[in-house]
Amino acid sequence: MAKKYSSKINKIRTFALSLIFIGFIIMYGGIFFREHPIVMTIFMLLGLLAIIGSTVVYFWIGMLSTKAVQVVCPNCGKPTKVLGRVDMCMYCNEPLTLDKGLEGKDFNEDYNKKGDARSK
Length: 120
Ligand SMILES: [Zn+2]
Prior knowledge:
This protein is an alpha+beta fold. Helix content is 45%, strand content 12%. The protein folds into 2 domains: 8-67; 69-119, no CATH class.
């Protein structure tokens, strides 16, 4: 099965959004424990933590966005942001790289983890 790639910023955004939903689901779950105030409080706190966590992740995206390099996607012509050595266009998922040595190679997110893919 082919792995689906998407822009890192979009991925983190999806994660933050799902964290908010998880937080609300956990808090909603607490309602079923009305007879046990302690359990309900724990559920509410966990839900609150997930929502606070997502706020932190949103802040983190903001920080990452300022560090990301803005480029114009050669495929769709829209300005997008590249995080790390390789990333995908936020609009059309075109693989983009800032490293000339990786140009023309098959897209592989592992290039972000390796020190220098060219020395291989
Ligand atoms: Zn594009």
